[in-house]
Amino acid sequence: MGTYEKGDSDEDEIGRLQKKLGVEADGEFGAETLAAAKAWQKANGAKVDGMVGPDMLLALGLDDLVVVEKGDEGELVRGLQSALGVKADGEFGGETERALKAWQKDKGQKANGKALVATLRALSVTGGADAPRAGASVARAPVAAPTPRAAPARTAPVAQEAVARTTVSSWAYQLADIEPAKIAQLSVDLCVIDYSADGEDATAFKPADTQRMKTRPDGGRKRLISYMSIGEAEDYRYYWQKSWETVATRPAWLDDLNPDWEGNYKVRYWDPAWQAVIMGSPQSYLDKIIAAGFDGVYLDIVDAFEYWRDDKPERPTAAADMIAFVTSIARYARAKRPGFWIIPQNGEALLEDAAYRRIISAQAKEDIFYGQDGDGKPNNKGAVDDCLGYLAYAREAGLPILAIEYLKDGKKVGDAQAKLASVGCTPTFGPRDLKTINLKQFGG
Fold first, then answer.
1. Three-class SS of 103-143
2. How far apart are CA 378 and CA 129, in angstroms?
């Protein structure tokens, strides 16, 4: 079956789809399933018709249910057409069916004109089959130097959703007191900074500034990535309104102050009103970043789903909501700028989801070996093992893992550097306020 829609019935296949959508898995595609499918499509920038086709099945991690056949449309069809050398209009018609049958016959396969996920992989329309399934268990990686397995070869599964996997051998991270001339002098593959010199819109970097900072001293280029918090609102940002400081006039999506970070407020990130602050108009946060010429975004407070699911158990679907939000950000940004990088910081438990791994460009993580109980303090082995177990998903998917340890003691830096390298992470070091970059680690 290529597409599932209202009225369909299958205890196994529809039941599995329903579980992914968070509704009762009774195997009957009824009104509740239709509403959930439409809600997912709206949240992910897809056509809102409630019909679950190959693109959506693949995004939900239901790869084995994917069948691309005559009558289907979308990005998978477009990718298939490009691979077969026919007009890539995204509509599976007679020409596409004939081309697929010819390919199948040439490969000695049954020439039925239907593309299962194995065919899509063989044609490099989507990625390999070795990544763990969303929700599947994974062996937790040990702290002591595991032997990394070779990452499976991957190509973009959907035209505007994924970027080619790229090695990042060095990176830098600074969020305050940023001077473009100093950033330009960094010989790194990737640099994360704020979108403005001091967090204020008045000092936001212009395209000329970002182009200057992308240049390395040897004339090469670095990726310049902008920080953007999506799980909390910051009262020092341009979008903040004075009325939000009073509970009575606070928008419904704005929650309590984070006691650990002055000026940061929890947000119900699944709320369309908050998402409109992030993207959708020239004045939105992401749109400003794209217009300034950044190569991607570094998404902070992705782990907010833990707060809404566990600490303040208001939203059982908080993890799925965050995945949907990150996916929407990726699709929106890549529609404007193909190849735009999406790098979540923390929230590594989301890496269990195969579709999420396909969307992001790299995974960033703070405090892997030090700092969870105070700066400079080693983390307990259980916490380290748990973290590395989730990061193993990224490593196996060929995603760069960017690690930041807030250390200044040389001995501890050396210890963390060796451990991080042994588990496939690219480290950087600095103060927790991220006001400076330690140039010594880059040979400066």
1. HHHHCCCCCCCCEEHHHHHHCCCCCCCCCCCCCCCCCCCCC
2. 37
CA distance 138 to 20: 19
Give dist(CA 156, CA 403) in Å, integer. Answer: 25
Q: How far is CA 272 from CA 111, 227, 266, 318, 319, in A?
A: 45, 21, 15, 14, 17
pLDDT digits (tens, 9 = 90+) for 227-245: 999 999 999 999 999 999 8
Alpha-helical runs (H) found in 227-303: 272-278, 285-291
Structure tokens that stand for 9 in this block: 């019935």
Buried b (16+ CB within 10 A) or exposed e, 279-312: beeeebbbbbbbebbbbbbbbbbbbbbbbbbeee
Task: Tell me the DSSP string of 297-361.
Answer: EEEE-TTHHHIIIIIS---TTHHHHHHHHHHHHHHHHHHHSTT-EEEEBS-GGGGG-HHHHHH-S
Residue 230 one-letter amino acid: I
Q: Which two tokens stand for residue 90?
A: 């995204």
Token pair for residue 101? 């049958």
Q: Provide the pLDDT for residue 439.
A: 67
Residue 156 near residue 164, CB atoms below 8 Å: yes
Q: Could you give the CA distance from residue 190 to residue 225 in angstroms, rounded to a whole number?
A: 7
State the residue for tokens 């069916």.
Answer: 97
Residues in contact with 347: Cβ distance below 8 Å, sequence separation at least 6, in sequence order: 302, 303, 304, 305, 306, 322
So what's the pLDDT on residue 396?
93
Q: How many residues does the chain have?
A: 444
- Yes or no: say if 52 and 40 are a contact pair by the CB < 8 Å rule: no
Instruction: Output the pLDDT for position 151.
Output: 35
pLDDT at 1: 60
d(CA 119, CA 127): 11
By the 8 A CB rule, do 397 and 151 touch? yes
Where the chain has pLDDT below 50, the residues are 127-164
User: Residue 253 corresponds to which tokens in the numbers above?
Assistant: 């999506």
pLDDT at residue number 437? 85
DSSP 259: T
Do the Cβ atoms of 423 and 390 come closer than 8 Å?
no
pLDDT of residue 444: 52
Which residues have a Cβ under 8 Å from the Cβ of 257 and sit 6 or more positions away? 264, 265, 266
DSSP letter string, 383-435: HHHHHHHHHHHHHHTT--EEEEE----HHHHHHHHHHHHHTT-EEEE--TT--
**pTM exceeds 0.90 for this model:** no
Residue 212, SS3?
helix
Asked whether the beta carbons of 159 and 81 are under 8 A apart, the reply is: no
- Report the distance separating Cα 171 and Cα 173, nearest Å: 7
pLDDT for 125: 76
